[in-house]
Design brief:
This protein is α+β, with helices and mostly antiparallel strands. It is 23% helix and 28% strand. The strands form two sheets. It has a seven-stranded antiparallel sheet. It has a four-stranded antiparallel sheet with strand order 7-6-5-8, with no helix packed on it. It is elongated, with a radius of gyration of 23 Å.
């Protein structure tokens, strides 16, 4: 023991104890996270819906208009570009996307028209803007409108800057994971 330093055996034991303490804290945390994911719990970090903990609840029947759902976006060039622009988070959906939380506002066979406003079968959806550019000034192209194809749904969020079907169009209904149920949320 020279220069006031501790013997190497003591330092090694302290490092081992510290490692055990850290692992003892991390392992239960990872187990809780894994169980939460396996049981359908997800965190929402985007402003399209209130922030916080949500649960994916199985659908009892067919999806209906007004249902708030978790949906995996299809792996298309439009969604890949959205991921690059930061509109989508990484996650466990095909293509590496995180699931979206959106409201179903049109089902297959319904007519969607996008102009100065959004209309579903001639009914104007209130408080909906279609933006020409995102918050960084990057151009946005909107869905041109038309009839929602078989096996697809048209999704919406009331958050004005949400990236939803106004921009990417109808998505396959097979991507719906279930209903979105708020568990512990914060709505700023």
């Amino acid at each position: 023991m020279t220069n006031g330093s501790a013997p190497s055996g003591i330092t090694r034991r302290w490092r081992q104890r510290l490692l055990l303490v850290v692992l003892a804290g991390l392992l239960p945390s990872f187990a809780i996270l894994y169980c939460g994911l396996a049981c359908g719990y997800r965190f929402n970090w985007t402003p399209s819906q209130p922030l916080g903990l949500w649960r994916i609840r199985p659908l009892a029947g067919a999806v209906a208009t007004g249902d708030l759902v978790f949906v995996c976006p299809p792996d298309t060039s439009r969604f890949r570009e959205a991921r690059i622009r930061g509109y989508l988070r990484a996650g466990l959906c095909p293509g590496g996307y995180g699931p979206l939380i959106k409201t179903v506002i049109a089902l297959e066979g319904q007519r969607v028209e996008i102009g100065g406003n959004l209309e579903i079968d001639g009914r104007v959806i209130a408080h909906v803007d279609v933006r020409q550019a995102d918050a960084r000034g990057l151009p946005l192209s909107s869905f041109k409108g038309g009839v929602v194809p078989a096996g697809h749904v048209f999704l919406h969020s009331s958050f004005s800057a949400s990236w939803d079907s106004r921009y990417f169009g109808p998505v396959p209904a097979e991507g719906i994971l279930g209903l979105a149920e708020a568990v512990l949320i914060y709505a700023p």
